Amino acid sequence: MPHDLIESRTIFVGQFVNIRMDIVDIGTSHVDREVVEECEGVLVVPVTESGTVILVEQSRHLFGTTYEVPAGAINSGETPIEAAVRELREEAGLKARHLELLSSHVNGVHMSGRNYCFLATGLEGGTAAACDADEEFHGCAEFSFEDIAKLIDEGKIPDLRNRACLWRAQLHFLGAV
Prior knowledge:
The protein is an alpha+beta fold. It has helices at 80-92, 145-153, 160-174, and strands spanning 4-13, 17-25, 30-38, 41-46, 53-60, 64-68, 71-73, 94-106, 114-125, 136-143.
């Protein structure tokens, strides 16, 4: 059962996240809780007919070169599936005949933005990929799930959102879920 909110104030406003301080009644006392308000987003795991996964290679400020699934924020007025179609086209230059919602999740218990993880199959070439102006995009590459495990071990897929979606897709293909 959620705690009773006593007071809430925003302490930081950013491009992708806001941070607020909540005072909540947990039954025995009032406590401060930092809450990260993220925008909602999508992640798309594009899997080819041969079972390889197409990942986007990017440069990230904190990590250098990373490999990621096509992903991004859900724009105002857009549904998660519409955002998934757009991100797959923008970042990988692909269209999918089939999009299946694999999961939805928040990134942590003190974070509010929901992420939707989609599996994209029946891939077709679309338009040329183009990243956002604030990203350094290097292209796309195909990897087996075994190769992806090595990329994770090497720190080339550093964030848990990508890892979780890739693991969920792998479980899907193993018939474990």
